Amino acid sequence: MSGTHTGVPSVLAHELPRPVPADELAACPVGDVFRRVGDKWSMLLVILLGGRPHRYNELHRAVEGISQRMLTRTLRGLEADGLVRREVHPTVPPAVEYSLTPLGRTLLEPLSALADWAVRHGTEIDEARSRHAAGSGAPSP
Amino acid sequence: MSGTHTGVPSVLAHELPRPVPADELAACPVGDVFRRVGDKWSMLLVILLGGRPHRYNELHRAVEGISQRMLTRTLRGLEADGLVRREVHPTVPPAVEYSLTPLGRTLLEPLSALADWAVRHGTEIDEARSRHAAGSGAPSP
DNA sequence: CGGCATCCTTGCGGATACTG
DNA sequence: CAGTATCCGCAAGGATGCCG
């Protein structure tokens, strides 16, 4: 076990093995970030912007499954958290460019570490699911 | 930039900078895992079980903000994914022990890397929020 | 082009009560 | 002790329409 990633191996092991104040996780930044990560679009946009800055409709086209509502909402949230920067170019047809802030860029690494894990063990998860489904309730179709 | 975490630096940079098939993220294990991480209780339980095996009511007491419904649901989900193992001891008062599988244990590291990031940059996020709130809509109370 | 406002559906998630 | 089952509130999220 042990932790040799960033330097703080047992942030969790120190924060949670205790009586867990319940909503402490929701109040502390960890819960906040976890929520963001779990957000269907947030991390997708972060990663997308990690590659290059994008314009609004460019993002809308890139994801192509998100509604304007969610695109704007998510971007606003990320902007509020200082992960994304919004630059408005006062041209004749208004052009808005979204880019990742330095802070947002630092998120890419722990994020990719997690994504990496998912890719690596994705098969195992899938197998475990099949195995579980087989022994639970899906006998004779 | 660069990536020196797990060994696969640009899983995301390779998967997403492309036209993003939209629901590809939702279908592939990455989206799945991200959803779990974002889940309010899942990772909390994983971390908790990462310390030691726990029994049902022991977990219920530990978190103490979760309902039986969510406790069971979350545990079942984690069990289905092969992250948690459920052992039933056929004693007179039934005793069920939940523990982390080897697979589940491997998740602890990328997870703590992310949590670590959150703790490290939590202040910056908070500051960015205040800064954003100050310039958006909270003028004179 | 880049948004914001509104409506309406979906399902997550909590509280409660009952069983093995 | 370890769940299962039911009810209900609430807000996340998609579709649509209008404005700068």
From TrEMBL, chains A, B:
This is Helix-turn-helix domain-containing protein. InterPro entries: HTH_HxlR, WH-like_DNA-bd_sf, WH_DNA-bd_sf. Keywords: DNA-binding, Transcription, Transcription regulation. Gene3D superfamilies: Winged helix-like DNA-binding domain superfamily/Winged helix DNA-binding domain (1.10.10.10). It comes from Planomonospora alba. Residues 28-126 form the HTH hxlR-type domain. The lineage of its organism: Bacteria, Bacillati, Actinomycetota, Actinomycetes, Streptosporangiales.
